[in-house]
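Need a sequence for this fold. Nothing fancy.
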């Protein structure tokens, strides 16, 4: 699902501005939860995350669903179910 809301872009940009942090940083998990919710995808709460690169994370939801969340070439926030 793609979305170009400035709010989503700001949230995802905030994920990458921070220095490298542990994958289970509570602020990162909260940010990813917000991005997934704003995209209207089922998740509940993100319980774990893995950083793949700048603007690129895999989030694991409490319901077991995993999403890759990243900025595509057009600068849009994308969440792909894994």
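Here you go.
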């Amino acid at each position: 699902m793609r979305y170009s809301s400035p709010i989503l872009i700001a949230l995802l940009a905030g994920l990458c501005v921070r220095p490298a942090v542990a994958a289970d940083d509570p602020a990162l998990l909260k940010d990813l939860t917000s991005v997934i919710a704003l995209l209207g995808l089922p998740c509940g709460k993100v319980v774990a995350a893995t950083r793949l690169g700048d603007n690129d994370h895999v989030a694991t939801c409490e319901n077991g669903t995993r999403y890759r969340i990243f900025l595509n070439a057009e600068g849009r926030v994308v969440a792909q179910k894994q």
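For context: The chain is about 30% helix and 35% strand.
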